[in-house]
Amino acid sequence: MTDAPSDLTNGPSDLTDAIFGPIDQCIFGHMKPFQFKQFSIHQDRCAMKVGTDGVLLGAWASLDHHPATILDIGAGTGLIALQLAQRSFAGTIDAIELEDDAYEQCVANFEASPWGDRLFCYHAGFDEFVDEMDEPYDLIVSNPPFYSEDVASGDEARDKARQNNSLPFEELVQGSVQLLTEKGIFAVIIPFKEEQRFTKLAQKVGLFPTRITRVKGNPETDFKRSLMEFSFKNSEPQIDSLIIENDRHQYTEAYIKLTQAFYLKM
Prior knowledge:
8-stranded mixed beta sheet; alpha/beta
């Protein structure tokens, strides 16, 4: 079974560290691509590496409404868009990435995948994209920056990718509601502590939670993340929870079922 903890557990901060370790990640100074069952992710130029948060959202986001058009906001490596390409028959899967190196690497990952003809990445800021796009999307997903407080890791690109001021929740919600079809779904993964605030921001623009999964690393820890789906329909949301591990590297059946279409050894 693949080693797949992230900051949701007590393990390394991303999946690459967990699987390859700090030495095996690199071959002659070059980081190995992260290999999934049907595609691979090159990430040596991206500030934000492959992590459990992205994998969870890409596996969890609902496709029951059979979206024909999908948008990934803040695509990074392109991971979530690639997962949705694997899971769906959507003819159009667009992504937006502002950071130069991440954009170029996302495009390369798309082109190297089996679904390159359905995937396209725009090099733009979200506000610019919202102003210029006319066609709405049936499904919009985002793994947005988490930190509203100041952070400094020493890596400027990583800090920008993780700081909330790179894409404030308010801007994300206001832009997404303009791009969503009438029966569309908007799905995000955010810190559990931000769940109520994010819900209020969404409700202000007419989006309401329809499904919420609260995620914790193991049975003894607090909830760390909230997977959330919103739509224009105001109804009682379906709420459940997900535990990643029962014990160190002993993954729960629910987590395995959710992610086994992607991890090589899951």
